[in-house]
Automatic annotation (TrEMBL):
Keyword tRNA processing: no
Domain of life (superkingdom): Bacteria
Name listed for the protein in its UniProt record: Phosphoserine phosphatase 1
Protein's UniProt keywords contain Hydrolase: yes
SUPFAM superfamilies: Phosphoglycerate mutase-like
GO molecular function: phosphatase activity
EC category: hydrolase
Coiled coil location: none
EC number: 3.1.3.3
Classification of source organism: Bacteria, Pseudomonadati, Planctomycetota, Planctomycetia, Planctomycetales
Gene source species: Planctopirus ephydatiae
Keywords of this entry: Hydrolase
Length: 212
């Protein structure tokens, strides 16, 4: 797997960024595409471990969301391969609208109707003032497919976000998109997807064996 895949396959190592202050809060708060803070010391350590785990792979490109937490994580990986990080706005995190910076209990108690509406079907019901999971899938999946077409016969790394990764991975598990919240994505996890011209196959989900 560390070497280049067959000529008709793009092996995509889809990762989540390292931890931020929002991720480390208890309870954690929602961090969509409006909050744009850096990695914490823990997040940087996770990113270094991720970069070390991927250093033995033959990597042809490193791509990332333009948000600081994803770009910063990707820079650790790109440096070990003497590459530059390429960003794409379509890889940014889901917009959570007016819930940005709030924890779920606060949302449930103070915005009950919107909370229940979203949880009934997050695939089609957006975060209030933000995006649904279908919205995210519709903007991110074509970008990933384009990258896969560009890099047939190569390994690439894509560093994105919790919700974005979930909506890409959920259909590959054969699940309805409304179930995407059940798909776990740890900070600096690795998902391996092999793309061909007509399909994508999930090889590895939420691997964290490289993290302490």
């Amino acid at each position: 797997m560390r070497q280049a895949p067959p000529a008709n396959v793009c092996r995509m190592l889809l990762c989540r960024h390292g931890a931020t202050a929002a991720n480390e809060m208890r309870p954690y708060i929602l961090q969509g595409c409006e909050m744009n803070g850096p990695l914490t010391a823990i997040g940087e350590a996770q990113a270094r471990s991720l970069a070390a785990a991927l250093s033995g792979f033959l990597v042809a490109g490193v791509y990332a969301s333009p948000l600081q937490r994803a770009h910063q994580t990707a820079e650790f990986i790109a440096k070990s391969h003497q590459l530059k990080v390429e960003t794409d706005a379509n890889l940014r995190e889901c917009s959570v609208g007016r819930w940005e910076g709030l924890d779920w209990e606060t949302i449930r108690t103070k915005d009950t109707e919107a909370h229940d509406h979203f949880f009934a079907d997050p695939a089609t019901n957006p975060h209030p003032g933000g995006e649904s999971y279908s919205d995210v899938l519709n903007r991110a999946e074509p970008t990933l497919k384009q990258l896969a077409e560009r890099h047939q016969g190569e390994n690439i790394v894509v560093v994105a976000h919790n919700m974005l990764n979930r909506v890409i991975l959920t259909p590959l598990l054969g699940l309805s998109l409304r179930m995407a919240r059940q798909v776990k994505q740890a900070n600096c996890c690795i998902n391996v997807i092999e793309w061909t011209t007509d399909r994508a196959e999930l090889i590895t989900l939420n691997s964290v064996l490289h993290l302490d």
